[in-house]
Design goal:
Structural class of chain A: alpha+beta
Number of strands of chain B: 7
Order of helices and strands of chain B: EEEEEEE
Strand content of chain B: over 45%
Number of strands of chain A: 9
Radius of gyration of chain B: 15 Å
Helix content of chain A: 10-25%
Largest sheet of chain A: 6 strands, mixed
Structural class of chain B: mainly beta
Oligomer: heterodimer
Helix content of chain B: under 10%
Largest interface: A-B, 35 and 30 residues
Number of helices of chain B: 0
Shape of chain A: globular
Radius of gyration of chain A: 20 Å
Chain lengths: 159, 104
């Protein structure tokens, strides 16, 4: 009897606490409803594995696509500078993310494309060791990916 | 206040190509000095590109973007003389904004 009452009290407290937090975030402007362009949650950048990163980004089982071109060198002599070019002929590219699956934090960069900007981006990333570079493209609300292996002869992280 | 960026913006057939070279150490927070002390993380987290008042690209960086980040992208529209403005923010809240004119 006593125990039941305690449990109830706990749930109530928890629920109340949650609401309080939500209200607090809302008032601080941390929750931005109606933000025109959604960027990925910063937590995704802190993720230690590919799976963690993808779930933090809200990606569910991306399919492969022939309409994404990922250009990376087969062999990177210097892991500190690995050039990456991602371009896609998919319609309505909203977002392109670049990940390296063996990096301490796999998500390297995320790009959000407003209408009128072409679905392509060029940048350079660091790679700790030989691993796959993954280009994740969100087009028309759906996720697609392509990946390529890059052999790294000298790591770019940790020095 | 960060170091100045190099920005090139050129228009061809109605498409403007923007190339940006930022100057930033992009420390991962994992690197150690010879004496074993860890170099604290120091990297750009957000980049915004504006063509006049309109956002043409938003980028979010993690620690694994290379030192002195390079970025290029293309957007439709833009004529010679228009301004392209790039701003970045790093994890210490330092910021830098530079502007370039679109050339032919």
């Amino acid at each position: 009897m006593n125990r039941e009452i305690n449990l109830d009290r706990r749930t109530t407290l928890k629920a109340g606490g949650g609401m309080g937090l939500l209200a607090l975030f809302g008032s601080l402007g941390l929750l931005k409803p109606g933000m025109a362009m959604a960027e990925v949650d910063k937590k995704a950048f802190a993720a230690k594995t590919m799976d963690e990163a993808l779930s933090a980004m809200g990606v569910i089982l991306p399919g492969s696509s022939d309409l994404i071109q990922l250009n990376v060198p087969e062999i990177a002599e210097n892991g500190a500078i690995v050039p990456v070019v991602v371009s896609s002929t998919l319609v309505n590219v909203e977002q392109i993310s670049i990940l390296a699956d063996q990096n301490p934090n796999p998500l390297a960069a995320n790009f959000t494309f407003p209408e009128g900007t072409e679905g392509m981006v060029t940048t350079r990333i660091k790679m700790a060791k030989t691993s796959h570079v993954i280009a994740l493209v969100k087009a028309d609300g759906k996720f697609y990916k392509v990946m390529k292996e890059v052999k790294v002869t000298a790591g770019g992280c940790g020095g | 206040m960060g170091n100045p960026m190099k920005i090139r913006a050129s228009v061809k057939d109605g498409v403007t190509e923007v190339k940006i070279l930022m100057q930033h150490a992009m420390e991962t927070g994992l690197r150690k000095e010879a004496d074993g002390t860890v170099v604290p993380a120091w990297y750009i987290t957000d980049v915004k590109a504006l063509h006049k008042e309109k956002v043409v690209l938003l980028a979010q960086f993690g620690q694994s973007v290379s030192k002195n980040p390079y970025l290029s992208f293309r957007f439709k529209g833009g004529v010679v003389g228009d301004k392209v403005t790039i701003s970045w923010v790093d994890n210490t809240n330092d910021t830098r904004t530079d502007t370039a004119e679109i050339t032919a």
